[in-house]
Target: Lipoprotein
Amino acid sequence: MVILVCALGLVSCAPAAEEPAGDDKSTGDRADKSGWPAAEVERGLVKGLALPIEPYLQTYPEEVALQHAKNVLNRACMKRFGFDYDPPAPGNRPPHSYNAANMKRRWGITDPAEAREHGYRLPREPTGDWKPYELQGPDANYVFDLTTASGQKPPAGGVYEGDRIPEGGCRGETDRKLGSYDDSLAAKINVETFQRAKQDPGVLAVNHKWSSCMKGKGYRVGTPLEALNQAFSNGTAKASQAEIAMAIADIDCKKSTHLIDVYFSTETTLQKKRIEEEQLALDEQKSKNETIMKRAAEYR
Model:
């Protein structure tokens, strides 16, 4: 189930990359935004739909702006110690979803045009040659975040080239200046309601209708997420004609059974209840995050 939730984009399951993007020479505004995900799904069965939790989730533009600000501050700090800090600009390796709700594929594939061309695959696969930015040399790594190589001794007295290293290194200094963006409660509700909805009687009933529709088209799958899992289990890099046919049938059955309407209504109800229960905490996190984004905007 963890793999499936990762594939749907409801949580980030990629390994944490050390400062993967951004610098003070290439702002988010200068990045190629043509491939950025839209705030609202523009076509398919979930066109225009938005869940109640979304205003509390970090967006991709916010992520880019925050990364840019971090790199401006990191660059200035590292320069004080005589080190270059030149990672690539942020915003040039966009995800497929605007936020962690991942509406376009939250309940499996929903775009007929994409299904006809790519089956269950994503239209734009991640590039395999990308590597996280790496600082050169043990001294630079230590000044950045106090990382020490095997056998390396930290600078005496926490001083390097006559300048005292900040607590936590340059990364620590940057985090203190900006603050830590935290949408963890919203992210928890996002995943929690997604999981709980699968046990709702209305969802179970519509899954049965969808499964019967698929059986009538020659496919034996219990739920749309099983179909997604099945499609990715064949190990091929490109969608076959058989997969494309199944994907088209999947969306046709979603449409005829009104599956998306049921899923969306169910999760909306669950999320409204959870938001009401956690309103104060959610508003507090959101207010703090807005303050952090205002600080980040000062470094554009």
Remarks:
- Residues 33-41+49-297 form one domain.
- The mean pLDDT is 87.
- The beta strands are 159-160, 163-164.
- The first strand starts at residue 159 and ends at 160.
